[in-house]
Amino acid sequence: MSAEAPVLKDQAGQTTPLGLLRYGIEYFAAAEAADDAIGDDHGHGIHAPMVVNFLVGQAIELALKAYLLHAGVSADELKRKFGHDIVALFDEAMRRDLGNDQRIGQRERGMLFLLNGPYKARELQYFQAGTKEAFPVYGPLQEAAVVVLRTVMAQIPNGDLLRSRKATSALFRVALND
After folding, report:
1. pLDDT tens column, 53-71
2. Nearest to residue 23, comparing CAs of 83, 50, 54, 63?
3. What is the gyration radius of the CA atoms in the chain, in angstroms?
4. How far apart are the C-alpha atoms of 119 and 97, rounded to whole Å?
5. Which helix (H) or strand (E) holds 62?
6. 137 is in which domain, residue-wise?
7. Residue 132 included in any domain
8. What are the helix (H) ranges across 102-168?
9. What is the mean pLDDT of residues 111-137?
10. Whole-prediction pTM value?
11. Structural domain tally of the chain?
């Protein structure tokens, strides 16, 4: 490894914001690939398959945790205080100026709110019989995920290094109105 090569993990082997963001982007790319592969099944025209929604939720959770770690929240506090609550993570990130460029806000929070209940209860990861009371339509959820990921990517030092990764291209394939 040359002295100029970027490092995605610090020397002590600790979790870094850039490392968490990288995983978040990879989960999003996996969601997009899964939706392309199985999202056209009958009944999934509006709502993506559960696995796709889980992967998108995981992508959002990791991106928000990356931002909060960068903003000074410890990894222990992220786990203990926020767990898998993507709305609480979003709200804390917004309190810590994630939305200072105003490209992110209530529309994204609304999509996260609809996903949050089944996501944090692990209903997207483990089968639970019955229908979900409310669930986001995939297109707006997908766009909200892209806004969150791209906003965090712009805030994390060296986040632009992730642009060259194959997984990151999924973020830029999704059409946004920005």
Report:
1. 999 999 999 999 999 999 9
2. 63
3. 16
4. 25
5. helix 50-70
6. 17-173
7. yes
8. 106-120, 138-155
9. 83
10. 0.86
11. 1
